[in-house]
Structures are given as C-alpha cells and as structure tokens.
Amino acid sequence: MLGARLSIILAKKHWAIMTYQSSLLRTLEERGYIHQMTDAEGLDALAAKQVVPGYIGFDATAPSLHIGSLVQIMMLRRLQQTGHKPIVLMGGGTTRIGDPTGRDESRKMLSDETIADNIKGIFSIFSRLLKFGDGPTDAVMVNNQDWLGQLGYIQLLQEVGTHFTVNRMLSFDSVRLRLEREQPMTFLEFNYMILQGYDFRHLNKERGVRLQMGGSDQWGNIVNGMELTRRMDGKEVFGLTTPLLTTADGGKMGKTAAGAVWLNEDMLPSYDFWQYWRNCDDRDVGKFLRLFTDLPLDEIKRLETLEGAAINDAKVVLANEVTRLCRGEDAAVAAEATAQATFAGGGLGEDLPALEVASEGVRLGAALTELGFTASNGEAKRKIGEGAVKLDDVAMTDPAFLIEVASGETRKLSLGKKKHAILKGA
C-alpha cells in the first residue's frame, strides 16, 4: 500500500510539469478541471491511443442534482467530446447507506420508490449534456443496486473486506473528522467506502472502465477502488479529481441564501437559474466560462478581460450558455428577455417568479417569504426596515402592509436590485 501511495505522490509532481499527448488531459488541464491524478503519464498514454471508459458516481438523494454537481457532469461531457466513453453511475445501492464525506449526521433513509423516482429525475440533466446509446463513445447510465444488491454479507466480507484495514479506514478524512467532532457514525456509513471501492472494481471487470473521476473530497475513495481492483484482479486503473469549487467570496458552489441552485426546471425556474450565473462575482466569470460552457478558449480569454460595466456582457454570455446547455435554447432566450424587460425596460418579464394573491390580499412580509426572497418573516422585516423592498418601484416601510391585487391585474415586488417577482390577482 505504501508503494501505491508513493507512486501517486510522484505522479502528482510529474503531472504538474508534463505536456499531454491526449486531447482528454489537454482539455481538462486547459479548462481547469484537474486537481489530483494518479499516474498522469500512464493515463495520458492510454487516452492517446484508445477509447477510455470513465465514470463518476452520483447518489440519488433528491429528484435533481444542483450546480455543485455540474462540474462533474461537465467532466463526463469533456470525456465524450474528446472521444472517450462516459459511464454515469447512479448510486441506487449506496444511496441506501449515505456517503459520510463532509457530513455531521447520518443521511435520512429513502424508500426504494423514492430512489427510483429520483434517478428518473436526475437522468434528465444527463440526457441534455451527454449522448446516450450503444456506440463506442456513447454514454450509459448504470445503477450500483444491480450488483451491490446481489452481494451476500459473508461474500462481501470474504472477497472485499480482507483488502481493507480498519487502521486505514479510520485515517480517511470522511471518518476522522466526523469522529474528531464527536459526531456519531453508524457502521452502515462506515461501509460506504468499501462499497464505493467495489463499484470501481465491478465496472472495470464488467465494462472495462479504466478511470474514475470525482471531486477532491473523493480522492481517498477513488484510491481505495484502484487498490482493490489491483489486489483482486491485477488490473491497472486510474483516478482523477477536480479542485474544490468555491466562489470568489469563499462560498460553496451551488448554495445561496435562498437555498440550492437546482439543475432541473421543476425544482428551480429557469429565470432564477439564469440569474444565478448573471449575478456571479466578476472574478468568477473566466473560471465559470471554462468549466461550464463549450465556448472556445480564445473567446473566453476575450470575455474575461472585459472591465467595468462591460464585464456584465460576459456574465450575460455565461448565463445564456449555461442555461442553454442545462435547460435548452428556449429557456435561455426567455430568461434573457425577462431580465431585459425587468431591468432595462422597467417592465415585467413573463418569466419572473410569480405569486398568486387571493382577494383578501397578502401582507408584504409574508409575500417576500412565500416567494423565497427571504427565509423567514423576521428576515423580511429586516429587509423592509433597510429600505431594500419596493412595490411597483416604490420603497416600502411597513411589513404588515396589505398588498391587494385586483383579479387579472399584476404588480411588481422587488428585493434589492436583483430579485423581482410578479404578484397576480386571483
């Protein structure tokens, strides 16, 4: 095991200075996807001479993934764009356990029906960004419940458990940090890394998978799977991780004050999705264009050099390109038109979030909370007190103000300069 770890360390140093032969690693490097990699020279040589099947795993804990997962999905897209085969692994089995990485408490148990429904919902984003089929570079989606569900416990202990030491498992950050914080970890969760390692071995054996990719927090799990595959089958496989993705202000990608930025339309309106990218920090524009769009690198370099108010043009390009990929052309066009109508023209775009107001009206503070502009009525009261709330472009000061909207009419409610909604009379 020491030898394997040493080779990984040496590979990481070598990777930092080498020039890649393969379009796969050149593309990943140029666009900023690479953080850690095992045997960069070996993977580069392999990708230069043959189709490399590679996979990333996603647990089905919700009906949609959020944009924190988009960098991984785009990695699979880059894999396919450079002539290789993406494998989307849905964790129908591992979702029943829960990845302890970065968590302080056990994950809520989900029913089989809920997991199946979540997988159906999640597939929609992959179907937009990847080409599925039976060809050599066509994507496929697999479910680890199909093989993990068939493993007997004694079989798992005998065949797989002997290749893992408790000493090493306790050293993993996902376990060590949880124990240091004195947060309980169930034996069920402790087994997650064993099952994830088994996934890599199974996919290598059954589908010829040579590469597992993932976020930097998955490095230990990926290396475990590589080592298990080598020990059980004598096969050489590779691992690659992306950097921890944060925004320029240090925030976690995919999270906002209003909640997660979901990829699916039924979880987050396309206008709100578009606005997330349009409102990104100036310092993030170039990075996001490289990671989340297919724009040529020369065009990205031009856009990220824009200064002052002109950087907003680059943000509109970013918002349009990402929305087009994830939601479709119509959604991108409608979102930009709504933004222009709302901000440039001072009107009401049809794609804005909407709240139907009953004949008896709605209190100002309650309307902000119902729209999701504020997390609570207390927060709404604070925002109103700060002068940040306007009704039909008029500043409001009373949280208890009763908003009335006649049937068939509309009014505009705004929080700050970037959040706007339509109030519709019932």
TrEMBL record:
Localisation: Cytoplasm
One BP term from GO: tyrosyl-tRNA aminoacylation
Keyword set, alphabetical order: Aminoacyl-tRNA synthetase, ATP-binding, Cytoplasm, Ligase, Nucleotide-binding, Protein biosynthesis, RNA-binding
Keyword Methyltransferase set for record: no
GO molecular function: ATP binding; protein homodimerization activity; RNA binding; tyrosine-tRNA ligase activity
PROSITE patterns: S4
Motif mapping: 'HIGH' region: 60-69
Enzyme Commission number(s): 6.1.1.1
SUPFAM superfamilies: Alpha-L RNA-binding motif (SSF55174), Nucleotidylyl transferase (SSF52374)
Binding site for L-tyrosine: 55, 192, 196
Record carries keyword Flavoprotein: no
Gene3D superfamilies documented for this protein: HUPs, RNA-binding S4 domain, Tyrosyl-Transfer RNA Synthetase
Catalysed reactions listed for this entry: tRNA(Tyr) + L-tyrosine + ATP = L-tyrosyl-tRNA(Tyr) + AMP + diphosphate + H(+)
Short name of one Pfam family: tRNA-synt_1b
Role, per record: Catalyzes the attachment of tyrosine to tRNA(Tyr) in a two-step reaction: tyrosine is first activated by ATP to form Tyr-AMP and then transferred to the acceptor end of tRNA(Tyr).
Family under the similarity heading: Belongs to the class-I aminoacyl-tRNA synthetase family. TyrS type 1 subfamily.
Protein name: Tyrosine--tRNA ligase
